[in-house]
Specification:
single chain, 169 residues, mainly alpha, elongated
Length: 169
């Protein structure tokens, strides 16, 4: 019987680490499960793309909420919202394209026998994560200046700002 190679072992671990199959017999690597492993690795690529789309939709929905609430207050604020929404769309497209093209040719994402070239995933992942956190903070802080200018008592302003900042938790 052939012993699994390093690539096969890492791929199998990646695909079964959070899988409900882990509790069954799938937690032991067995050669000959190449089809299952291929499908699993293809699913990982699809999940990366769908994750980026989901995050973009969530952030764009919050930006749209801000637009509906604050559009009558300031034209400059609306332009900032449009700029942020445009950035989020571009950033999300770049993330999705990066997930699909992280290894070329595309087939090399699940087939170790194909000669390939991959980007530095740790560097790219760190950069994308940092930008993601930064956009989260911008989206959380964005409504605070208009809320601070409300003609309300100080205590009410703080309470309203607190409601908008619940997302920090």
């Amino acid at each position: 019987m052939n012993r699994p190679g390093r690539w096969e072992r890492q791929a199998f671990d990646t695909c079964t680490r959070h899988s409900p199959l882990r509790k069954g017999t799938a937690h032991q690597y067995k050669p000959g499960r190449a089809h299952w492993l291929t499908v699993c690795l293809q699913s990982v690529i699809a999940a990366e793309v769908l994750y980026n789309v989901a995050i973009a939709c969530i952030k764009l929905s919050i930006i749209r909420l801000y637009y509906r609430i604050f559009s009558a207050i300031s034209r400059r604020f609306v332009l900032v919202l449009w700029g942020l929404a445009s950035f989020m769309i571009g950033y999300s497209l770049a993330n999705a394209v990066g997930a699909v093209l992280q290894c070329l040719p595309f087939r090399s994402n699940w087939d170790p026998t194909v000669k390939h070239h991959c980007i530095g995933l740790s560097i790219a992942g760190t950069i994308f994560a940092a930008v993601n956190v930064l956009t989260d903070l911008v989206i959380l802080i964005l409504p605070l200046p208009p809320l601070a200018r409300l003609r309300k008592p100080f205590k009410e302003k703080i309470q309203i700002m607190g409601i908008f900042c619940v997302g920090i938790l």
